[in-house]
Structures are given as C-alpha cells and as structure tokens.
Amino acid sequence: MRRLRIPIAVLVLWAVGGAACGSPEVTDPAAASDCAELVEAGRAVAEKVLERLSGQTLVELEAANPGDPYAAILSLMRTSELDQRADELGCHPEELRVQACEIYGGLAYRARGEVAGDFLAPYVESCG
Description:
The chain is mainly α. The chain has one domain (8-17, 29-127). Helix content is 60%, strand content 0%. The protein contains seven helices and no strands. The radius of gyration is 14 Å and the shape is globular. The chain starts with 7 loop residues before the first helix and ends with a helix. The model is unreliable at 13-22 (pLDDT under 50).
C-alpha cells in the first residue's frame, strides 16, 4: 500500500494542538508566536486533512488522481508553512513531538476510513 510520506516533525505538528489558557486558538502557522501555538495551528491543519480524507479509500484517491493519489490534500497540509515557521521559532522536533503526544489523541475519533487511519498512523507510532 502506498502511504503519504511526510517528515515526522511535520506530522507531529499536524496531529496535535490545544488552546493555551484563555487564548484564542491559533489556526494559521504564520500567526504562531511560539512553538505551542504552532502545534495548535498544526492541529487545525490536521483536522482539515482528516475531514477531507473522511471515509475515503486509497482506491478512490488513486482513481481520482492516478499519478498522485494525495494531490487533493497536499495544499491542505501546508507543509512548507509549518516547516518554515518551526525554523523561524526555533522549535526543536523533539519538543514538538512531546507536546503533540500529550494531546494528539483527540484526533483519533476523526480518522474515519482507511486513508484517514493511515494518515494518523505515524503519530501513533511516534508516541508509542
């Protein structure tokens, strides 16, 4: 089975979030003022990806775009924006992973279908 290949630091950013005490939730990576807010933005990105993948199978994605079954979600993933902001803020991948693992589990209920489950699998593996 062909899986979406993304650096683990980016996966961790997508998988988690959680609003800081009383602060509005950050949903745009560019608006993050620290690593915790970047994790919040990553969660918002992951939620959009999971919504788009909900109920989809790899066969359906391949039928829609045989050359690149994940083309429909690549723009939603905002990989370069998340990576760039993590670099600008000096976020260490291990710091992001730890923050993510503490609270990412709330997304598991949104993983409906084979492809969405595959999308979340690296998060589960990195925290196990």
